[in-house]
């Protein structure tokens, strides 16, 4: 007769702790491997709420989780680099027969890599022009304020932003 499997929720504190630690290890390894919290929770057989409770209550778990996230992000960046710079080999088929292979590159991924690596040079730029005097007049009228005070404060904020 097979031994009855004990439910860890009804076992000793040490047994429950061991099960929890194992679930944490599975969760962290799964996050590092997939970058996906839902999938990691599924693999660890826990609810998302359990993960977030551990994040709040266990400083070491939270630190390990952030490290696992970075591992997943590093893997994504490496794959983006591979597709953008090294390219992927795709077969060319004609009349049902393999003719040759071609290497395709992802310009889109390359753009994202450049924007991330050198945002000062490659970020999207937007120029916004605001007529402070007109806006100040509208605000002053709507809220019963002094237009010149609003303009003076706006100009001070602009100068502060330039510093």
Explained architecture:
The chain is mainly α and 163 residues long. The protein is built from eight helices and two strands. It has a two-stranded antiparallel sheet with strand order 1-2. A hairpin with a 2-residue loop joins strand 1 and strand 2 (97-104). Helix 3 (48-57) crosses helix 4. The longest helix has 28 residues, at 59-86.
Question: Key terms for this structure?
Answer:
single chain, 163 residues, mainly alpha, 3 domains, two-stranded antiparallel sheet, 8 helices
Radius of gyration: 28 Å
**Ranges with pLDDT <50 over ≥5 residues?**
none
Helix content: 55-70%
Distance between the termini: 79 Å
The secondary-structure element order is HHHHEEHHHH
Q: In the residues, how many domains can be counted?
A: 3
| Overall geometry | flat
Summing up helix and strand content along with how strands pair, one would put the structural category as mainly alpha
* Average pLDDT, all residues: 91
> How many alpha or pi helices?
8
Major sheet size, sense and barrel closure:
2 strands, antiparallel
Record field, number of beta strands: 2
Question: Strand order, biggest sheet?
Answer: 1-2
Work out the strand percent. Answer: 5-15%
